[in-house]
Amino acid sequence: MSLITIEQIERAINIWRARHPTPEGTNECPTLCAEARELANVYAEMIFNRETFIDAARLNASQAVGLQRALDARKN
Question: Which residues of the chain are under the pLDDT cut of 70?
């Protein structure tokens, strides 16, 4: 069993936000990129359930890939 902390999820969201900033301007709708949106769902669920960590098996495939790609890039 591999555990993922809420801090890791938050860090990955912030990495994706830095890579793909939200559009700015009066006619733009501020949105997260797809990877950050996927992880934001996990983050919100963890906050709602007052969880500080979750089992990695609870992530769907796109969430797991988004998390891994963000955190792997952070190591370089």
Answer: 1, 25-28, 74-76
**Residue boundaries of the structural domains of the chain:** 3-75
Backbone φ, ψ for residue 22 (5° rounding)? -70, 150
In terms of Cβ atoms closer than 10 Å to its own Cβ (0-12, 13-18, 19+), residue 25 is exposed
* Residue 66: count of CB within 10 angstroms of its CB: 25
Question: For 51, left (φ over 0), alpha (ψ -120 to 50), or beta?
Answer: beta
The one-letter code for the residue type at 29 is C
Query: What would the DSSP string read from start to end of 8-48?
Result: HHHHHHHHHHHHSPPP-STTPPP---HHHHHHHHHHHHHHH
pLDDT of 24 reads 74
